[in-house]
Structures are given as structure tokens and as C-alpha cells.
Design brief:
- The protein is α+β, with helices and mostly antiparallel strands.
- It has a 4-stranded antiparallel β-sheet, with no helix packed on it. Strands 5-6-7 form a 3-stranded antiparallel β-sheet, with no helix packed on it.
- A hairpin with a 2-residue loop joins strand 5 and strand 6.
- It is elongated and about 65 Å long.
- The mean pLDDT is 82.
Length: 163
């Protein structure tokens, strides 16, 4: 059986998983506002063992962190929820990862040393080990994306959470 030259494998984004992550992000985003601005007055006047939560010293930074971190998550999941792009595209030229914000470029088969499927904290990852990581670092214009790629050393990690 002969293989077609223009054959493509498309792996779509899992909209159910993305919706669940969106809803969880929304819950923690609202929790952040509640921590920052909610009323913690006790109706009984007694102290509980969790009274430190009532202190602004704890509440404000925790709420601020929740709002910032999960607000970004809300934004990203909202975009992914209504995106029509596939999560992963595999063709005869290479792999195009569109499942994360730090992705989108074609990874050529000639630049791939090996592909490993790994698991960390009950999350599966596809790890693509590159022969020349610097080649891809030079293409990235965003300093944030470049820093994330530098942390991955000579590999590109694709989370299977949204695929």
C-alpha cells in the first residue's frame, strides 16, 4: 500500500476538557474577588482555627494572585473554546502544535531527534526532543515565549490535556 504524499493527521482540541478548565478558572477567578473584597465578619463573634483567612495580609495577595492567574486562564480557555484550529497537525513535513499559547510553528521531521510520551502529576505529555533547539528559539519574537522555550531545554512539550 502506497502512502499519499499530502496525507495529514489532524487531532482536534477536546472542547469538553477546555470547557471544564474554563469553568474551574471562572470559579477560582470569582474566589479571588471574594478573597479580596468579601466580608469575613463572624456572626457568632467567635474565632475559628481558620481566622488567618480573615486577615487582609493573607486575603489581598491571595485574591490578587487568583484573579491574575485564573484570569489569564479564563482568557486562554475562552479563545481555545471558540477556536476552529486543530490542536495538533501532523503531515509529511512535520508537526504543527496549536494546543498552547507558546506554539504554532512547524517542527520539521529533520529537526526531531525523538518523540517521547511521558507523564507527570497524572498529566500526559508528548515530548519532542530537538536536534537544534536554538534554531526554533531564534524564530520566536515574544520574550515570554522564548523564556518558556528556554526552560524546556532541547525539547518541546505538548500537553495532552486539551487534545
Amino acid at each position: 500500500m502506497e502512502k499519499e504524499e499530502n496525507e495529514e493527521i489532524t487531532i482536534p482540541l477536546n472542547k469538553v476538557k477546555i470547557l471544564m478548565m474554563f469553568l474551574l478558572s471562572a470559579l477560582f477567578f470569582v474566589l479571588g474577588f471574594w478573597l479580596m473584597f468579601g466580608s469575613f465578619e463572624s456572626h457568632t463573634g467567635s474565632y475559628s482555627r481558620y481566622s488567618y483567612v480573615k486577615e487582609p495580609f493573607f486575603r489581598f495577595p491571595a485574591g490578587f494572585f487568583f484573579i491574575c492567574f485564573f484570569g489569564i486562564g479564563l482568557f486562554i480557555m475562552f479563545i481555545k473554546l471558540f477556536s476552529s484550529k486543530p490542536g495538533l497537525l501532523i503531515n509529511n513535513k512535520g508537526i504543527i502544535n496549536q494546543s498552547t499559547r507558546v506554539s504554532g510553528d512547524l517542527i520539521l521531521w529533520d529537526d526531531i531527534e525523538k518523540i517521547i510520551i511521558t507523564e507527570a502529576s497524572h498529566q500526559r505529555f508528548i515530548m519532542i526532543i530537538l536536534k537544534n533547539h536554538q534554531k526554533y528559539l531564534k524564530k520566536v519574537e515574544s520574550r515570554f515565549k522564548r523564556k518558556v522555550m528556554e526552560l524546556n531545554y532541547n525539547s518541546i512539550k505538548i500537553s495532552a490535556n486539551t487534545l
